[in-house]
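Incident review: delayed structure delivery

Summary: a single-chain prediction request sat in the queue longer than the usual turnaround. Root cause was a stuck worker, restarted by the on-call engineer. No data loss occurred. The affected request and its eventual output are reproduced below so the record is complete for anyone auditing the incident later.

Affected input:
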Amino acid sequence: MRIALISDIHGNKVALDAVVADIAAHKIDQIVCLGDVATMGPNPRGVLAELRRLGCTCILGNHDEFMLDDQLIHTYTEAAIVVEAVDWCRAQLEAADFEFIETFVEGLTLDLGDGQVLQLFHGTPNSNMIDVLATTAPADLDDMLDGNRATVMAGGHTHIQMMRQHKGILLVNPGSVGLPFVEYVQGKAPELMGHAEYAIIEGTGGTVNVNLRRVTVDGEAARAAVAASDNPMKLGLLVQYS
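Output delivered after worker restart:
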């Protein structure tokens, strides 16, 4: 089995197109999106349409839940620009988009073959708002995993690519397709990188391989998409590909 994991697209259709093109060159059996697909970026409906076309299973991220519950964002942040961007995104969507988001699942477990198992979520197995980092203390990580165990456990949410071994488990974050961060920001304004990130998980004959990938994005096209939108975050996003 060769599975591509994409996450945290955040309305960046140009970056998603770059990742999909790279995935096409790697004979992938399945694509899974780990959530946070539409908000923050300039083209939420384009991203949702592409995910539907790909037919990939999508995990419910916190920003996806914000589309379904307009009050939930206030339990996560009161930063005005973020709330405005989330509300703007919700206003762009049509009934079919909300129906698609309602199909997103809270988690997913996949068989990699030969007894190897891949468990997928957005933040942790029990929450799509908790950050798992390379620096998370082992005892805290035990609490976050809450007894869940698999050969590979993968989530997104932090926008930071990661692979970490914890008590025999490979913990993976594929990074962000649309808004990859230079470093963990813990609620502060992030510095963004101009590439797109994703991961390939492969199980062959009992061997597991994790490939963290970075893909070149057409910066001119991405900036044009941002400039053409009236997303409240457009000024901040324009610097990503400058």
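Verification: The first strand starts at residue 2 and ends at 6.
Action items: add queue-age alerting; document worker restart procedure.
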